[in-house]
Amino acid sequence: MGSKETPCRARTTLCFLLLFCVSCKCSASEFEITQVASLGVDASPRLSRKIPDTLFGIFFEEINHAGAGGIWAELVSNRGFEAGGPHTPSNIEPWSIIGDDSSVFVGTDRTSCFRRNKVALRMEVLCDNCPVGGVGIYNPGFWGMNIEDGKTYNLVMHAKSPETIEMTVSLTSSDGLQVLASAAIRVPGGSNWIKLDQKLVAQGTNRTSRLQITAKTKGVVWLDQVSLMPSDTYKGHGFRTELISMLLDLKPRFLRFPGLLKLFLIEKIEFVMFAHILFRHIWDY
């Protein structure tokens, strides 16, 4: 008797649940159909509120070459030969060699005069009868250097050589065939690093230029922190004038650096951009 009542009771319960679900669904559908909502917006001037001037600012992050290759006017990419980090051998890209294995040997070591950036490039010229243009290295910058006719470019680099060596620094087309500017520089023999400064005045325009450092006689030279900048940077701070001018036109009231985790309320944007370079943040760069 009990065994027959159990299946019957189960069927009754199941039917009840099905009826309940159907009823709820119908009620919900009815509720959705009959519900009407309205939203009123009053945009009249009497209810308006002035947006604070301090709400508008700039968010700057060093990604996709926003800084190096962007707002920073430095034309040389990987000027310290440390794209691969502080260890040697280091990645020197995009620097490339002019010549072959029989005429020049290029490597890196940790003999730089800079305490925080110890990697330096060592270039050994091997040829007795070097090609007419010499052998050495070149740097194409960030997708090619935009060199403009009549403009002056300031070359600064550090070098040392055990014996005096004569070198040539040039701005050329991407294939090296068109010379836009060139100057001879001498690295005196000795064990100490020296700072070399040279102005290069472009005698032509080329949007995809490169910087060349070459030599024609046997010898060894170390190079580090090779910098090339246009002479007309914004107030001499090293920033591109046209990009800083665009930022100033926005009239920002603050400038935020995400990695720095700091927010600057600013009156003069050039000070803040310069300050960001001076402060090392939690990511240590």
Automatic annotation (TrEMBL):
PANTHER family recorded: ALPHA-L-ARABINOFURANOSIDASE 1, NON-REDUCING END ALPHA-L-ARABINOFURANOSIDASE
Gene3D superfamilies assigned: Galactose-binding domain-like (2.60.120.260)
GO MF term (any one): alpha-L-arabinofuranosidase activity
SUPFAM superfamilies in the cross-refs: (Trans)glycosidases, Galactose-binding domain-like
Protein name: Alpha-L-arabinofuranosidase 1
Signal peptide: 1-28
Keyword terms of this UniProt record: Signal
InterPro entries recorded: Galactose-bd-like_sf (IPR008979), GH (IPR017853), Glycosyl_Hydrolase_51 (IPR051563)
